[in-house]
Design goal:
The chain is an alpha+beta fold and 130 residues long. The chain has a domain at 60-128: SH3 type barrels (Roll). It is 17% helix and 29% strand. The protein is built from 1 helix and 7 strands. A 7-stranded antiparallel β-sheet has the order 3-2-6-5-4-1-7, with no helix packed on it. A hairpin with a 5-residue loop joins strand 4 (90-100) and strand 5. The protein starts with a helix and ends with a strand. This is SH3b domain-containing protein.
C-alpha cells in the first residue's frame, strides 16, 4: 500500500511541475537579429572550421585474411611450439607485417583478443588486399 501511495504522490508532483512549466509565459523576441538574416544557403553567415583529420593522418588499409578452417595462432612468427590459441573460420584483420619461414610458409601478424599474434596462412585462406 505504501508503494502505491508513493507512486501516486510522485505522479502528482510530476504532473504539477509539467503543468506549471507549460503555463509559463514566453517573452516575445523583439528587435533586430545580431548577425543578420541570410538570404540564401550560400551566404557567409556560417563559421568555417578546420578539419580534424588531415591527409597525414590517413593510412592505407591493411589486408584481411578469410580463414576457412580452424587455424592456430602463435606469439612468434615461425613458431613450432604449442599454439597460444585457435581461431575458427572467420575474417581477421592483419597489421600488415609479413614474414616467411625457412620452408616458404607465409606468416602474417594479426589482431586477436590476446593482442597481436602470428598465423601461418593456410592454403585454403583468402587474402583481401585493399
Amino acid at each position: 500500500m505504501k508503494k502505491l501511495v508513493s507512486f501516486t504522490v510522485a505522479a502528482g508532483l510530476l504532473a504539477s511541475i509539467a503543468a506549471s512549466a507549460s503555463a509559463a509565459e514566453v517573452a516575445p523576441i523583439t528587435g533586430t537579429p545580431v548577425v543578420g538574416t541570410p538570404t540564401s544557403v550560400t551566404d557567409t553567415t556560417y563559421t568555417k572550421y578546420e578539419t580534424a583529420i588531415t591527409p597525414a593522418d590517413l593510412r592505407p588499409a591493411t589486408p584481411m585474411v578469410i580463414l576457412t578452417k580452424s587455424t592456430a595462432f602463435h606469439f612468434a612468427a615461425g613458431s613450432t611450439t604449442t599454439p597460444a590459441g585457435w581461431l575458427s573460420s572467420q575474417t581477421v584483420d592483419t597489421t600488415g607485417q609479413i614474414q616467411r619461414d625457412s620452408f616458404g610458409n607465409e606468416w602474417r601478424e594479426i589482431y586477436t583478443w590476446l593482442g597481436k599474434a602470428w598465423i601461418k596462412v593456410p592454403t585454403s585462406a583468402y587474402i583481401i588486399t585493399p
